[in-house]
Amino acid sequence: MKKEGEIRIPSGCAISGIFSKSDRKIGGEDIIRSIAVMHDRSNGLGGGFAGYGIYPQYKDFYAFHVFYENRDAKKECEAILESLYDIINLSKIPVRKIPEITDEPLIWRYFVTPLPSKLADSQLDEREFVVRSVFRVNITVRGAYIFSSGKNMGVFKGVGFPEDIGRFYRLEEYEADCFTAHGRYPTNTPGWWGGAHPFALLDYSVVHNGEISSYDANRRAIEVHGYKCTLQTDTEVITYIFDYLNRRIGLSFREIASVIAAPFWQTIEKMEPEERQIHEYLRNAFESQLITGPFSILVGFEGGLMALNDRLKLRSMVVGEKEDRVYIASEESAIRVIEPAPDRVWSPKGGEPVIFEKKADKEENHAVDFRLSRI
Amino acid sequence: MEKIDATGMHFKELNSLVRRSGHKEVTILNCIGQRYIGTALKTGSITVEGTPGNALGAYLDGGHILVKGNCQDAVGDTMNDGEIIVHGNAGDALGYAMRGGKIFVRGNSGYRTGVHMKEYKDKKPVIIVGGTSGSFLGEYLAGGVIVVLNLNGETLCTGKFTGTGMHGGKIFLRTENGSILPDLPPQASVRESTEEDMAEIRTDLERYLSVFRIEREKLFSGRFWTVTPNAKNPYTRLYTAD
User: Fold this and answer.
1) Which residue of B has its CA nearest to A331?
2) Is residue A197 part of a domain?
3) In the predicted model, is pLDDT for residue A185 greater than 90?
4) Cα separation, A375 vs B36, whole angstroms
5) Nearest-CA neighbor of B158 among B145, B147, B143?
6) Counting one residue from A and one from B, how many pairs have CB atoms under 8 Å apart?
7) Closest approach of chain A CAs to the CA of B129, in angstroms?
8) Domain assignment present for A87
9) Average pLDDT for residues A17-28, to the nearest whole number?
10) A319 in a domain, yes or no?
11) How many domains does chain A have?
């Protein structure tokens, strides 16, 4: 079978997320029940989860989750990791053997911190150092793929229906401040463990329902900045765009939404001068990061969760809120199955980012009412 | 009246139980995301408690569906005849390509309400939304009637791009004190509804009022506007210009 990156097949999908605004953690069981309701939106060729705040005992270390096709790949990858990092813990990721999930690769987890001398020699900041070493492994070591590289967070994914993938990874044993989930119906690529969602780099993770038509333009533009898209899936490029615009350029998540789901020029023309100036700048400066075609995405990051639809809203997305919990899913039923009586249920508009952040300031703890007018 | 508990049931099983009931009166309890309920139903009625999945009442052909809560996307997709009543909100693409029958929603509707509806001779679909609708209301509308009542008196009763690509049918918008009409694309033009326009929807409005027990005075305290295709400028390039 041809793998991700070798073939492009011309997807439906399901996404779900739960975010806790308080210190009350979310059990892995909840996110599995939510995504399972939307079983028929995926076809068994990919499922996955991202959990934030799941490794409090190792919160200062980067958690690398790695797929290996064989022991040679593991040896080669570990040699690179050992040359760059202090590995304070390594183990197989605990899984449960179930008949629904087969042919899994070797799945390992490393808690690491860059060796101070190597980091100093590199003259890079720590996060750039980590990104470069992740790409080095993923590009040069055949059969090794680092699919999760953030602190105090982790991605768990594979080929199968998402609820089975969740049981496989014993997700019920994790507690998180935020979970996202994805059920995959791959349309452009064949479906391989590495190609399942979420896609992640550092603490940024993306789950995506849709199919972006600007993939190749976005890919070419982001590869200029040192990223390498190895899998031909559009979600990979979205992840790198977030890393580039947030970590490297310093745009806020709200500004990023105005870049990737920019309002039409005809909408911008009708804005007040100050607002118009911002949007004209963002569209002109980051033209190549405009994403067209249908998408609904959930972007997890340290301390927050963002939901965004394409500007024409060609995919569905529903938000439910109940006390300290926020639920976001492709379908309302995926919210009601775990929270039958939300205080509020609503649908974000196309191109309108919905951002929840965990902050000390409780006033900030509700959806930010984006003042810029949208489609 | 037959009751079916949909807890943990796949849509195939649920829908075959509904069909086996002989198309009389069925109540579905604890519905949670099961799709295609009431597909092509010709007679009888289905009451749904819980949250039905996408494409509720697709190809509905004379049957009656009542939903006590919210619906998801594509309710009444390509519906031909019958009636769907939703006490909560409806999702995106409500009445997608609908060609006959009526859909009454008490709450709001999502994006692309009535997208590509059409009419032919006596077949004339009707959608009435009590609250507001999302953007692209009546996109590519070819026939039939969509009414957005804005009963909560929001400033805008719809989102943007109402009537984009519209070339037939009518969209009625209701305003109250303080609410304004949306900007319309060049393909559409708006006028205050005439007696003749109102006569076209009077029977359906009366039915709507009685179904949801709404006061006539409340409804008619607002002003009605009729959006029709603008014969002078049938198409512009919305999707290609940007």
Assistant:
1) B72
2) yes
3) no
4) 30
5) B147
6) 58
7) 16
8) no
9) 97
10) yes
11) 1
User: Do the chains contact at B33 and A264, CB–CB below 8 Å?
Assistant: no
Position B41 in a domain:
no
A347 to chain B, closest Cα gap in Å: 8
With a cut of 50, say whether residue A8 has pLDDT above it.
Answer: no
- The catalytic position among A13, A77, A178, A229 is A13
Contact yes or no for A267 and B35 at CB 8 A: no
Contact call for B242 and A266, based on CB within 8 A: yes
Q: Which of residues 299-328 of A touch B (CB under 8 A)?
A: 312-313, 316, 318
Q: Give residue B232's pLDDT.
A: 66
Mean pLDDT over each residue of chain A, to the nearest integer: 91
- Is residue B56 domain-resident? no
Confidence of residue A102 (pLDDT cuts 50, 70, 90): very high
Is the pTM of the predicted complex or chain greater than 0.80? yes
* pLDDT of res. A374: 38
User: How many CA atoms lie less than 13 Å away from A172 in the CB half-sphere?
Assistant: 8
Rounded Cα distance, B239 and B216, in Å: 41
A66 touches chain B (CB under 8 A): no
Query: Does A76 map to a domain?
Result: no
pLDDT grade, residue A371 (50/70/90)?
very low
Of B53, B134, B136, the CB nearest to A333: B53
Ranges of beta strands (E only) in A195-303 are 199-201, 204-210, 295-301
Contact criterion met (CB below 8 Å) for B89 and B108:
yes
Residue-wise pLDDT tens digits, A221-259:
999 999 999 887 889 999 999 999 999 999 999 999 999
Note if A13 is an active site residue: yes
- CATH number of the domain that residue A191 is part of: 3.60.20.10
- What mean pLDDT is predicted for residues A107-116? 98
| Token code pair at residue B225 | 């506007």
The residue among B160, B113, B161, B119 whose CA lies nearest residue B138 is B113
Q: Is residue B222 part of a domain?
A: yes
Domain count, chain B: 1
A40–B160 C-beta distance less than 8 A:
no
**Which residues from chain A sit within 8 angstroms of residue B50, using beta carbons?**
336
Length of chain B: 242
